[in-house]
Amino acid sequence: MDNEDNLAEIKTIYTKILALLSIKQEEVTFENFLLHSELLEATLINRGVDISLLSYANIFLLTYYFIGCELKKRGILTEFEFDRIKKQKFNELEIDYHPPPSPTAVNEEHKKNFCDLFDKLVDQSKKQTKTPSCIGVVR
Questions:
Q1: Are 36 and 70 in contact (CB under 8 A)?
Q2: What is the residue-level pLDDT of the chain in tens, covering all 139 positions?
Q3: Range(s) of the domain holding residue 117
Q4: 95 domain-assigned
Q5: Are 63 and 13 in contact (CB under 8 A)?
Q6: 122 located within any domain
Q7: Are 73 and 50 in contact (CB under 8 A)?
Q8: Does residue 103 lie within any of the structural domains?
Q9: Which contacts of 65-68 are long-range, i.e. CB under 8 A and separated by 24 or more positions?
């Protein structure tokens, strides 16, 4: 029963991540997602993260960033190309331009890169899981 619960939870994460990334199930099958999840687990262990101490939120974000990064590398994820050239057609005239950055964006390019966000979250998770928590009283 525990294995079935884990599989159901993984399937829920799979569905949520596909929805957030605007990806269809045909583009990333559940079996492919499981393979990427195993790769993510191996990557985290190799980088020194104690995965048994991660919260659901950490696991979800790590998976989201990792899958986003991998799909972006493979060219499957194109919805989040923030530096692409936009095209507008006005009657017979076609204009290509880079969209101007929004005034509220601070370091926008860096914020939207799944791979950078994944690396930062892995480093943060490593610190959180490797730094022992001390509870005590000092006299």
A1: yes
A2: 577 888 899 999 999 999 999 889 999 999 999 999 999 999 999 999 888 988 899 999 999 999 999 988 888 877 655 444 445 555 555 555 545 544 444 444 444 587 888 888 888 888 877 766 666 666 6
A3: 2-81+113-130
A4: no
A5: yes
A6: yes
A7: no
A8: no
A9: 65/114, 65/115, 65/117, 65/118, 65/121, 66/36, 66/39, 66/40, 66/114, 66/118, 67/17, 67/21, 67/28, 67/33, 67/36, 68/21, 68/114, 68/118
Helix (H, G, I), strand (E, B) or coil at 117: helix
Instruction: Please state, as a whole number, how many other Cβ atoms lie within 10 Å of the Cβ of residue 44.
Output: 21
Angle formed by the axes of helices 114-130 and 56-73, nearest 10°:
150
At 46, list the tokens. Answer: 């190799």
Q: Do 114 and 68 form a contact (C-beta atoms < 8 A)? A: yes
102 found inside a domain: no
In this structure, what token pair is assigned to residue 83? 């530096």
Whole-model pTM? 0.67
Looking at the 3D structure of the chain, how many domains does it have? 1
